[in-house]
Design brief:
The chain contains four helices and six strands. The protein has 155 residues and is of the alpha+beta class. The protein binds methionine sulfoxide (SME).
Length: 155
């Protein structure tokens, strides 16, 4: 896919996502439809949300939410893996080669590159959007910009 094609696909995706979530406030329903839309439109390997949940003794963890693709790990601790790092840093993390990211959690050996985008509820990270590709260097600043725009629709 060329840079221009990527821009065009995302630009259309933002419009479709806006229409899809319009009038629906349930976060699980909206996350489920967003994952399906992103996954089908962009042809990624794995697309899904991990949701920040209160677990044992008041400790928060990321717990697997709506997703598309093969089965995945269910729980990720704060600061662990790409997802936990995005949660900790409160920013999008782009990983061009998962083998070069220390602490990467390999849910699938097929995954070669990854992007994780935090979802904010007010000032708090409430979830992360995690996307995996079977190819190296799939994600860049364009993916980050549009996906950040898309997850804001969840608010
Ligand atoms: N690779 C992620 C774990 C989730 S799976 O990719 C679906 C990570 O390192 O946090």
């Amino acid at each position: 896919m060329t840079d221009l094609e990527k821009e065009q696909k995302y630009s259309q995706l933002v419009k479709e996502a806006t229409a899809l979530l319009d009038g629906e406030s349930d976060p699980i329903a909206n996350m489920a439809n967003l994952t399906a839309l992103i996954h089908e439109t962009m042809g990624f390997w794995w697309t899904g949300f991990y949701i920040v949940r209160d677990c044992k003794d008041g400790v928060e963890q990321l717990v697997l939410g709506p997703f598309q693709g093969p089965i995945a790990c269910t729980r990720i601790a704060f600061g662990r893996g790409v997802c936990g790092t995005s949660w900790q840093r409160r920013e999008t993390v782009v990983v061009p080669d998962v083998e070069k990211f220390p602490g990467h959690i390999a849910c699938s050996s097929e995954s070669r590159s990854e992007i994780v985008v935090p979802v904010f509820n007010g000032d708090k990270v409430s979830a992360v959007l995690d996307i995996d590709s079977r190819y190296l260097n799939t994600f860049d600043e364009t993916d980050a910009r549009y996906l950040e725009q898309i997850v804001k629709l969840l608010n």
